[in-house]
Design a protein that fits this description.
Elements (H helix, E strand, L loop, with lengths): L2 H6 L5 H19 L1 H8 L5 H23 L5 H25 L5 H28 L4
Helix pairs in contact: 2-4, 3-4, 5-6
Keywords: Membrane, Transmembrane, Transmembrane helix
Length: 136
């Protein structure tokens, strides 16, 4: 195990369980409450984008759960996690940069905070990958 895993006393797969739970909760909230969130955050884009984002997070949560329950992490699974998390984070920062002048401070803060959370989750996935990874 890595020094980080030892220090946190966590099994490498726990990060995937945590990501699955976070994606399930955020996905459900975005899909179910897109209209009020759009108003609260002064989101300049259609509600449909928040709904779609929420619906995308639900299978992502399932993939995280599948990864957490897998016997070993394969290089392909890790590559999918890296690509998915990186694209989500980059997309969030791009949306914030493009629409910063139109969004409320709360909306901008939450968008950037979740981008930071995704980056942190990706960093943990990479830090915990070695003991969980199998090269076939």
């Amino acid at each position: 195990m890595t020094a980080l895993a030892n220090a946190l006393k966590l099994h490498p797969r726990m990060i995937y369980f945590a990501d699955a739970a976070a994606c399930l909760i955020l996905g459900a909230v975005l899909a179910a409450a897109a209209a009020p969130l759009t108003a609260l955050l002064a989101w300049p884009l259609p509600n449909a984008l928040l709904i779609a984002s929420g619906l995308i997070l639900l299978p992502w949560a399932a993939f995280n759960l599948l990864t957490a329950r897998a016997r070993q992490l394969t290089p392909a699974m890790l590559a999918i996690h890296v690509a998915g998390d990186a694209l989500w984070g980059i997309g969030s920062v791009a949306l914030a940069a493009i629409h910063a002048g139109q969004m409320s401070e709360l909306g901008l803060f939450l968008l950037l905070a979740q981008a930071l959370a995704v980056a942190g989750m990706l960093a943990l996935k990479l830090a915990f990958a070695r003991p969980f990874l199998t090269i076939a």
